[in-house]
Amino acid sequence: MRMWVNIVVGIIAIVSVIGLVGCSVSHSASDDALHESSYYYDYIQPSFTEYVVATREWLVSNRNFISNNSDKELAMNMPSERGNKNTSRKAVLLVHGLGDSPYSFSDIGKSLEGEGFYVQTLLLPGHGSKPEDLMLPNYTDWQRIVDHYANLLKQDFDTVLLGGFSTGANLVTIHAIEQGNIDGLVLFSPGFQSKTPKLERLAPLAAVFIDGYKAEERNAARYTSAPLNGAIAYSNSAVKVRELLKDKTIDIPTLIAISEADSVVDPFAIKDLYLNRFNNPKNHMLWYGESEFTHDSITSLSMRLPDNRISTGSHMSPLFSPDNSFYGVGGEHKMCANSFDKNAVEACERGEGVWFSAWGYQEDGKIHARLTWNPYYRALEDAMSRL
Question: Which CATH superfamily is domain 2-319+375-385 in?
Answer without folding.
Answer: Alpha/Beta hydrolase fold, catalytic domain (3.40.50.1820)
